[in-house]
């Protein structure tokens, strides 16, 4: 479907976080369905069911019931109100995923405030940008290290009034004697522990006042400002309303009900792998909507992703492609090297058999016999890496190698590709186990429209579309015109409504002979080799593409040891045997691609790309401009 659009714009987001005059409503007003209402409902109906599970400092299992989560959230909300915050004021959270992150989100939702989440890895300059741009009044910090970052930024944050410390020392000062910043005597910034904040709220704000404040929250009011990962330029805050998220929830079918009461009687578990950003925000509200138990990944330096997933036994597992690639490498590494090609081939045959059954065909007896035997000896073992209780694995955020998709689908993993972006509350289209088309991101969610512009750009319209970029008039970016969100993604829509993504408009590489190519096809093909963690194509103004590769260190180390090669990354990337293997991978990828998409040379880094170095965004996408600039000299040398 192609549409021709006229340029238009919407009223900007009001700086107080309320709906600006004349702004288009983005959610179903008057429903009474906000995140706070969902949390209170669950606490009242299923008080002893487990809302959150996690591993403690000594690896001990911990959980928080719906009743306890709402009690903590209510206490935090009353504490925030005691600080004099008005509806629409911004509360930032500088923390990893943990129960206090969830309860602070619920507290903000219940008191009409707007939450702004930052990862613990956020660097000081970015903290200044985000907190200054959203004019945060309060920052909730995970520990002393995060608090120190905010304290260093205080002179440049005139709107900041309070900091709250989650992991405070045992002997904390009372609220009224908390220290203030010496650099701003006119507007002192006070620091409280989270316990002190809650005690202050219980003392100064009664529950009825909070209930009135909570009931006044409308669907069109803001719930969160999420700063986009941004592969170029400064980050912009996406303003998302309660209604944006509720519209996505309504598009998801409710799971079959389970018996009421009891800690174990939720509808299943959602294992959240990513940090507190776009997908994690959606999983928070989805869990409360569908009565799932949230399970947070600990993610320590010695923690294996596959081991944590297996221990969590999730029913719902949202993943970014990088995490799926890590699981793929781990699964293949569990077989001897000489058996890997046989395992991959069996998965391909398994997918073919499953597709035939899905079309209503009866498998020939010998094929059925092979399938039944392989199901027990191979496919079930692959699914065991996911814990053995999966209902669905969703993958979104970037292209996934077809080889990886075929492998897991062939082994019976209920994996579906979907599509969304921060600007659509993380959801817009999805495949389902019953309606799946390989290589697509599925069909639009109920209530969402998807179209393509004449130049192939994907357009989205629906109640999930955000209110705009915080502090900017829409004309400055033109992201929403005539109600359609211009995503910046390129794609197509088939006759059955399935959407296929082909690349990003801004990531197109203009070769010297005038052809513009997307880097995604060759990059995703290359990442199908479990040795490769990242592939970054390069070639602006050049006659052809070259690519920078990084190794998946755990898998590459095992691969090298089996061949008695050096296992350290620095010597390994220069080893002729490794380079021959990577050359074969590039040749196989080139064989599937059109001429202009083919890679003519490659280089291999002796380390992986790094979030801390700015080479990856917080959603684990490659920051191309950073990688290209940092390794430009080495990449240019590939053309000589």
Automatic annotation (TrEMBL):
<feature type="region of interest" description="Disordered">
    <location>
        <begin position="1"/>
        <end position="30"/>
    </location>
</feature>
<dbReference type="GO" id="GO:0016020">
    <property type="term" value="C:membrane"/>
</dbReference>
<dbReference type="Pfam" id="PF00501">
    <property type="entry name" value="AMP-binding"/>
</dbReference>
<feature type="compositionally biased region" description="Low complexity">
    <location>
        <begin position="170"/>
        <end position="183"/>
    </location>
</feature>
<feature type="domain" description="AMP-dependent synthetase/ligase">
    <location>
        <begin position="40"/>
        <end position="470"/>
    </location>
</feature>
<dbReference type="GO" id="GO:0004467">
    <property type="term" value="F:long-chain fatty acid-CoA ligase activity"/>
</dbReference>
<dbReference type="InterPro" id="IPR042099">
    <property type="entry name" value="ANL_N_sf"/>
</dbReference>
<keyword id="KW-0436">Ligase</keyword>
<keyword id="KW-0547">Nucleotide-binding</keyword>
<protein>
    <submittedName>
        <fullName>Long-chain fatty acid--CoA ligase</fullName>
    </submittedName>
</protein>
<keyword id="KW-0067">ATP-binding</keyword>
<feature type="region of interest" description="Disordered">
    <location>
        <begin position="170"/>
        <end position="192"/>
    </location>
</feature>
<dbReference type="InterPro" id="IPR000873">
    <property type="entry name" value="AMP-dep_synth/lig_dom"/>
</dbReference>
<dbReference type="Pfam" id="PF23562">
    <property type="entry name" value="AMP-binding_C_3"/>
</dbReference>
<dbReference type="GO" id="GO:0005524">
    <property type="term" value="F:ATP binding"/>
</dbReference>
């Amino acid at each position: 479907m192609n549409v021709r659009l006229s340029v238009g714009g919407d009223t900007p987001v009001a700086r107080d976080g309320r709906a600006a005059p004349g702004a288009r409503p983005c959610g179903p007003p008057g429903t009474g369905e906000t995140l706070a209402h969902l949390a209170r409902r669950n606490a009242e109906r299923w008080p002893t069911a487990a809302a959150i599970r996690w591993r403690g400092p000594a690896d001990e299992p911990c959980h928080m019931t719906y009743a306890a989560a709402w009690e903590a959230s209510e206490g935090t909300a009353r504490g925030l109100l005691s600080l004099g915050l008005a509806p629409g004021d911004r509360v930032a959270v500088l923390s990893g995923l943990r129960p206090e992150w969830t309860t602070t989100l619920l507290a903000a939702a219940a008191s009409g405030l707007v939450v702004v989440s930052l990862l613990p890895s956020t660097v000081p300059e970015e903290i200044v940008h985000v907190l200054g741009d959203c004019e945060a009044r309060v920052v909730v910090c995970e520990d002393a290290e995060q608090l120190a970052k905010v304290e260093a930024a205080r002179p440049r944050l005139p709107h900041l009034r309070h900091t709250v410390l989650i992991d405070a020392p045992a002997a904390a000062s009372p609220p009224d004697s908390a220290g203030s910043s010496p650099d701003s005597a006119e507007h002192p910034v006070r620091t409280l522990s989270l316990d002190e904040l809650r005690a202050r709220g219980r003392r100064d704000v009664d529950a009825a006042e909070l209930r009135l404040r909570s009931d006044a929250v409308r669907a069109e009011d803001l719930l969160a400002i999420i700063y986009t990962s941004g592969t170029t330029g400064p980050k912009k805050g996406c303003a998302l309303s309660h209604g944006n998220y509720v519209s996505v929830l309504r598009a998801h079918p409710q799971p079959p009900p389970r018996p009421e009461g009891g800690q174990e009687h939720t509808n299943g578990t959602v294992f959240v792998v990513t940090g507190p950003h776009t997908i994690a925000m959606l999983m928070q509200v989805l869990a409360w909507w569908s009565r799932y138990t949230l399970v947070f990944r600990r993610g320590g330096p010695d923690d294996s992703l596959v081991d944590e997933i297996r221990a969590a036994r999730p029913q719902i597992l949202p993943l970014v492609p990088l995490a799926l690639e890590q699981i793929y490498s781990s699964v293949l590494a569990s077989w001897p090297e000489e058996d890997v090609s046989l395992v991959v081939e069996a998965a391909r045959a398994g997918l073919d058999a499953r597709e035939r059954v899905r079309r209503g065909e009866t498998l020939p007896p010998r094929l059925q016999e092979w399938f039944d035997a392989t199901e027990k000896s191979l496919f079930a073992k692959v699914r065991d890496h996911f814990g053995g209780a999966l209902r669905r694995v969703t993958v979104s955020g970037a292209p996934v190698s077809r080889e990886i998709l075929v492998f897991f689908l062939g082994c019976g993993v209920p994996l579906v590709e979907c599509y969304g972006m921060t600007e659509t509350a993380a959801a817009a289209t999805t495949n389902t186990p019953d309606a799946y088309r390989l290589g697509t991101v599925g069909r639009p969610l109920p209530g969402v429209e998807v179209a393509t512009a004449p130049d192939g750009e994907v357009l989205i319209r629906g109640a999930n579309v955000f209110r705009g970029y915080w502090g900017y008039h829409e004309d400055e970016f033109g992201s929403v015109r005539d109600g359609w969100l211009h995503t910046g993604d390129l794609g197509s829509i088939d006759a059955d409504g399935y959407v296929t993504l082909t690349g990003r408009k801004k990531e197109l590489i203009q070769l010297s002979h005038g052809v513009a190519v997307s880097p995604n096809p060759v990059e995703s093909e290359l990442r199908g080799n479990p040795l490769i963690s990242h592939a970054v194509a390069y070639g602006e103004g050049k006659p052809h593409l070259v690519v920078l590769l990084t190794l998946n260190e755990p898998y590459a180390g095992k691969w090298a040891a089996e061949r008695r090669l050096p296992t350290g990354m620095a010597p390994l990337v220069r080893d002729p045997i490794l380079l021959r293997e990577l050359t074969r991978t590039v040749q196989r990828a080139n064989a599937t691609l059109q001429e202009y998409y083919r890679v003519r040379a490659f280089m291999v880094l002796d380390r992986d790309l790094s979030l801390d170095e700015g080479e990856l965004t917080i959603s684990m996408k490659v920051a191309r401009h950073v990688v290209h600039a940092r390794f430009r000299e080495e990449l240019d040398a590939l053309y000589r």
